[in-house]
Specification:
Number of helices: 18
Structural class: alpha/beta
Distance between the termini: 65 Å
Number of strands: 12
Length: 430
């Protein structure tokens, strides 16, 4: 069996320095390497935890390194971050083991740095205040304390104020709840809950969110009999709310413009009782395969997939749909706790998506029938991708109006992901 620390090192290095995605890196390694339950859990926590706390861990490292962090080898820096995370957060690891295993790992991947790794970690252990933060500037402090890039911390502070920004960033550090959605084509919430209890899980109905269950102790989800039979989907309550706001009805013609991986598409079909027609589109066939697989598992038969670039207008789709869902590509700031690499995005990374969003909402609006409804949603809490986009759209398109106040779900309460929902209606054919 491979050493979970070594596997963790490769996953973390891939995410931080090679542009990988944490969930993909973790799943790829787990598929290739057989780890028992304890080591799987250790590996997963080590990877996610180290990435989630990188800026904070680097702050601690810098206190005990005569060299600037930029001068350290990438290999050494990753190993130090991993070692500090084990010392600070993992109760199952002794301090001795954290240091010893870090030195051994360094000897394997970057031998000449092993002495330095040993010295830094031992100096940390000697200092009772090693993990204290001594930063007076509020913005810099919360950036380090919650390990969020200065750019994102500044953006949130500008838009929400420093106190609420800190609450939001605290929410980023909370472990997300696991929510699932009962497939109403095949079962009910109560029947599903009973089946899951038989499988050893601990489901609870979620107040105010129809079809949803929060679940603990649901292990190896994809191997669960209930999952394989299409009785449920894993989906956050924010995404469920988005689909319910769309309001799909049996017999309607609906467009899901950015549909991958198909969770919302499947829910739309379920609410339509598998009656009517849904066009599910995305930019690549690989993405659409995920949508097809989702629909097959759920027993959904009314979905047609089509490869389509949402930034390019398609004349053949003009005014065809009763309802259009635009779950737009975005910075993902609202789902940082699920994808920790998003924490370190810069303003340049974030702002590069704004024009794409403008093009997509404008094109999508032209696909809505007069009297039809469009939902524009994102999994970000950056107002420049949300209210600013929809306000600008409405100024340019007098044939649309807001149906209700926009919905902004913040992650600060730990109940759901950060999410934005704007419901618009086409009031004329202009």
């Amino acid at each position: 069996m491979k050493n979970p620390r070594e596997l963790g090192y490769h996953a973390i290095y891939n995410v931080i320095y090679q542009g990988g995605y944490s969930n993909i890196a973790i799943n790829k390694i787990l598929r290739k390497n057989e780890l028992d339950g304890i080591n799987r859990g250790f590996f997963t926590e080590l990877v996610y935890g180290t990435i989630e706390n990188k800026l904070y861990l680097d702050y601690v490292i810098q206190k005990y390194s005569r060299q600037k962090l930029q001068e350290l080898s990438k290999e050494v820096l990753v190993i130090l971050e991993m070692g500090l995370y084990q010392i600070r957060e993992m109760d199952s690891v002794t301090d001795f083991a954290a240091v010893d295993e870090s030195v051994k790992l360094c000897k394997k991947v970057f031998p000449k740095g092993s002495g330095f790794v040993n010295a830094v970690l031992r100096n940390v252990l000697r200092d009772p205040g090693a993990f204290d933060i001594d930063i007076k500037a509020p913005l810099e402090r919360i950036s380090v304390e919650y390990s969020v890039s200065p750019d994102i911390a500044g953006l949130l502070a500008d838009q929400y104020g420093i106190e609420e920004a800190e609450d939001i960033m605290y929410g980023f550090s909370m472990k997300p709840k696991l929510y699932i959605r009962a497939n109403s084509l095949k079962t009910t919430v109560s029947k599903l809950a009973e089946l899951l209890r038989e499988e050893g899980a601990e489901p609870e109905e979620t107040e105010g969110v129809k079809d949803a269950l929060s679940v603990k102790n649901l292990k190896n989800i994809e191997n669960s009999r209930s999952y394989k039979e299409g009785l449920f989907s894993v989906q956050d309550i924010s995404s469920m709310k988005c689909v319910r706001e769309l309001g799909p009805q049996p017999g309607e013609y609906i467009l899901d413009l950015c549909s991958c991986p198909g969770g919302k598409t499947g829910y739309i079909a379920e609410l339509m009782k598998n009656e009517g027609s849904i066009d599910a589109m995305d930019i690549s066939e690989n993405k659409l395969e995920l949508v097809k697989n989702t629909c097959r598992r759920l027993g959904v038969s009314i979905v047609r997939t089509r490869q389509n670039d949402a930034t390019v207008y398609s004349e053949d789709m003009a005014a065809r749909y009763d309802r259009v869902l635009v779950d737009a590509p975005c910075s993902g700031i609202g789902i940082i706790r699920r994808k920790p690499e998003i924490r370190y995005k810069t303003i340049k990374d974030i702002s590069s998506i704004y024009n794409v969003q403008r093009k997509i909402i404008q094109n999508a609006s032209r696909y809505v029938k007069p009297g039809g409804v469009m939902i524009y949603s994102t999994c970000t809490i950056n107002r420049e991708e949300n209210q600013y986009i929809t306000d600008e759209f409405l100024k340019k398109n007098s044939n649309f109006e807001r149906v209700q106040d926009d919905i902004m779900m913040l992650p600060s309460d730990g109940e759901s992901d950060g999410f934005y929902i704007c419901k618009l209606k086409r009031i004329s054919g202009q």
